[in-house]
Each structure stands twice: as structure tokens, then as C-alpha cells.
Protein: Poly-beta-1,6-N-acetyl-D-glucosamine synthase
Amino acid sequence: MGFNVLGRCQSGRGLAGSRKGANPCGMSKHNLELIRATRPLTKQVGRRTLEQRLIQDHAVSKDHVIRALTLQQHQRAPIDRILVSEGWASQDQVLDALSSQHKIPKVDLSGHNPQARLLARKPAGFWLRHSVLPWMQLGQTVVVAVSDPNKLNTIRSDLAASFGEVMPVLASESQIQQLLVSHFRKDLAVEASSRLPLAYSCRTMRRPDWSGATAVLALGLLLTALAFPRHAFALLCGVALFTLLLFTLLKCAGFISHIQTIRSRRQIELPIASRSKFTSPRHRRPMISVLVPLYKEAEIGRALLRRLCKLTYPRSLLEVLLVLEEEDDITRDAIRCADLPDWFRVIEVPAHGGLTTKPRAMNYALNFCRGEIIGIWDAEDAPEPDQLDHVAAAFAKGDGALACLQGALDYYNPTQNWISRCFTLEYASWFRIVLPGIARLGLVVPLGGTTLFIRRDVLEQVGGWDAHNVTEDADLGVRLSRFGYRTDMLPTSTYEEANCRPWAWIKQRSRWLKGFMVTYLVHMRSPRLLLKQLGWRQFLGLQAFFLGTVGQFLLAPCLWSFWLITLGLPHPTAPLLPAGATYLAGVSLVFFELLGLVIAITAACATGRRSLALWAPSLILYFPMGVIAVYKAVYELILKPFYWDKTAHGHSPKSRTQKLG
Structure:
């Protein structure tokens, strides 16, 4: 399946109807190599009843069955899933063959209304997870529609206590899912908004009551500042320097760890996770479900499909879920213009309570995931083709404490303008230098919103995502550490579009800073419990990240005042401080800026973009935009804490044309 100039997939009647060889979207180069290397498997065609029936019905050719059997030796995936995912058979053809093989009648569920009393005997998650629907009751027997007859024994065992005797019929997964969604629609929408327990959620945050104690406290602080302005300013300067010190220590720790890694391993992005791809036949490759939340993405949908079709991971073990709001006609129309492969699915999130956030959409879509590993990509992302192979290898070699992998984020439009250059340097500094160092030191890893992969069982254990938190990624990273799990960095990159317009940059950064404030306030509700769960090292690391990140922007005017000293001018707080204190503060500020400069230059070299190092000195003019963003964040934190300021994408020409080798 290829793409024409308009971005549509070319496959006749779709990927499932393709019958002529492999194509870029349906068969990876790795799979082709496996097939060529193991042609002698021709004698195995007749050994499997399902394959025999497909050949007898002329649903699939012998050559395609041979290829599927070859791939199965390496992928260890069901043969029917391989045939469909590679485009050699359709879902209907496979369903007919399964019906004949297992002697189970095939039914058409269109126009059927599910029986509420039967569905009420199990939670929605059970029916969706197993793709099972209680169709009708005949006396003491319940007729159950299933999409995978190979799971019948497990389904019978799970339903025995609720239904007694069960008689199966075969139906398409799409019909079963559609009927389940229509019945549980409201329940699933409510659960998506409130999945996380209140103790860990920010949804209890509301506007402060300015008529009571809050107003009295605010007025008292204002009057004190007016009565003692110099003392108040000195106090703010002290707090600013403290937060700067915290963040400086965090960056130093990450940078030193990076230097030590270079010396010991002679590689620049070797975190805890292994760099090797999945090659061992002793481990079964995991099924991976990747969520791609979309919202009003008319400009980027087709480019996204082209990028994801370059992935080398076996199609039979991969599914991509495009997640959009049901009222988002813009994205829906864009998706209609594309002929989606069978390993793509579209999940529409029903509206509820006016909340349209990315974490809420992912909570809803989690119900429909088949994978053991849940991944996240954003709409503008261009992951490296072998990224999922690295994911599978890292989890296969990891221990039980490894719950999540965070990949490096990079930009494919770094030279578009000055802001994009600085943004690329900032991301490279964080994802190539500081964050891997934090992970190596065993500190809390504040996750990025994309290119993260998490074990599904762990994700469900910690409560999924906080639907009301606008930086659900950082919040999830803290929660994983509180539950005793570890996040490793993944030695692979995802390329996305750098925000290169001033106001769009401020809006995006404002959302991040507001989310950091919310996350910190939520987890610091009970500091003693947090300290007990994290331990001193992780607890102090968490303080350094959140207080340092927010404080350096929120109190930036106080920090800027120390530049007066470098100009030979007295600092306003000098009379209140011991001799030399202001000079020490000035030196600390200079050291912080020089540290950031060194890290940025190192990061530019680490990404192979040495020319960007020339722009590192201009970062001192780039970060003041964050001051505007942080005060916008404070305003929204007070008046609309759950407001998600959408970041617009697709403005870079490369977002439509960029191709990664």
C-alpha cells in the first residue's frame, strides 16, 4: 500500500483486499528478508486446517500461506493475524475459515440491540478486552458472540460463574466492539474522566474562594510587601536563588553522568535501556498498541500515515489507534481521505462534562487496546523506523521494576527560524544530556508526552492518566516512582515539529508550566507519604525539578536583578545581606548560564547538528519568553486549571514533506 501525491493509500479496495506481493505499508523489509531466507517451508502448508480452508476457498494463495508460515516462525503471532495484517487475506475471509475450522456458526450482528441484563453481569472492560458479546439467551443457555475462537476456553472459564452454559457464535470484532460501545458509551465516558483515584488526581482543584480566608491571606501578603518592600524583595530573591540552585544541581548531576557514560562506553546516548534490537528467539515479541491522540489536525494526518508506514515492527503484533473526539469533524474528515491499513483503528471519544483533554482521550482508548505495551505518539511525530524493535528488546531484557521507556524527542525543522533553533537546542539538552543522567541516577523521571512506552498491567495498576492534568506525562512519571517502578531512557528518537512562532511557543510552554504546578501540588498534598514512597534521593530530585523549573521563570525578574552586579551597580538588597552575599549570587547566576551553554553545545554535538552550537549563546534571549508563559500559567491555574491550550501543528513545510531514512 503506497501513497499518491494526495496522501491516499493505493490498494484497490484497501489493504485487506491486496493480493499482489508485499508493499511499503503491508510488509517491512525485515519480513521480506525472513521470507527469502526460509523458502523451504513449502511442505508445511497442508498441516494447518485454517490455511487449508483459506486455500480451498481461494481466499489466499499458497505462496502467501508459505510467507505467513515463515513469518510466524519469527513473530510467534497467530497465522490469521499475519495474513490479515500483511494484506493477504481479508477479515471476512479469515472469519469464514475460522467458522469452518471450529464448527462455530458465523452470525451478522448488524441491527442487533444488546441485552442490558446480560451485559450487566460483567464490567465493560471485560467485554471489550475479550471482544465478547452476550447475544441472546435460549433457556438456560447464553449465546455469546466471539471474534477469536482460540480464546473460547478462557472465555468459558471466565463466564461460568455468571452465565452457566455458554454457546459460542462467531462475529466480526468490529461489530462486537460497535455494539459494546453503543451500550457502555456513557459509562466509558465517565470512567475516562475519573479513572484515577482522587488521592492522586487534580480534579478536586477548583477556583479559590476569594470571599474567605484566601482573600484575607492574599491581602495580608500584599500589605506586608507594600509596608516592607525591600525586605519582601530580598525574600523573593532568596527564594529565586534557592530554586536556581536546585535546578543547577539537577543539571550538573545529569551532565556529569553523561560525561561518565561517554568515558566508560564511548557512546553519547546510552541510557539504562539496551541499544540492541529484538533478535533473540527465546523471547516472544510483545503486542504493542500505540495511541495517537488527534484534535483538529487537518494539516497533519496524511503525513502521519506516511511516517508510520515506515515502521519495521511486525504488523501482526502492532496496532495504531487514532484517537479523536466525537465532535472533531476536522480530524474525522482528514482521516476519511486516507485508506487506513488493517493495523490502524479509529477510536472516537464521546463527549462528557465539557472536558476534551489528551489524557481523558487516552483513558478511553485504553479500553480498546490489545497490546501488552502501550505507546504514545503525537500527531506530528516521525518515529525512527526501528523504534518499536528497540522497545521490544528493552522490555525483554528488563526486570520486573522496569515499567516505562522514554525515547528522545527531536525536531525535524530546527533551521526554520531562530526560535526553532533554540527550541531544538533546549530539547537536545534535556533529552540527550540531562534526562538520561537523571534516569541513570535513579531519580524521578518526568515523562515527555510522546515516545513513551509503558507496560499495560502497570499502567492500569497506577490508575491510567489523570484526565484533568494538562501535563499528564510528568504526573504519570511521578506516580510510577511512587509505586516503586522505574523508567529507563530509550536509545531512539522521534522527530516532531518545533513550535517556531512566539505566541504559539508561549501558549505551549504556559500549559507545561501550569501542569508542573498542578502535578507538584497534587503529589505534595501529603509530603510525609511522598517521602516514604520515594525515599530521600527521589524526593529531593522531585523538588529540584518542579521547584527549579517553575521558580526560575516565576522569579526571573529577581534573578535578572543580579546582573546589576556585573555592571558594577549595587543590588537593592545589599544593605540587608552579609558582605559579599550579592556577589556570590551574581557568580551563581553566571555559573548557571555557562552550564546551560556548555550543555547546549554538548547536546548539539550529540545530535550531529554541530552548526546549532553556534546559536547556543542566544539561549539567554530565548528563555525570557518563559516568563510571559509562567504568569499566563499562574492566571490559568487560579481561574481555569483544567483548560488545555491546544498547540497548533502543521505550520512547518517539513511537517508535510519530511522523510526520515
Q: What stands out?
A: The chain is about 50% helix and 10% strand.
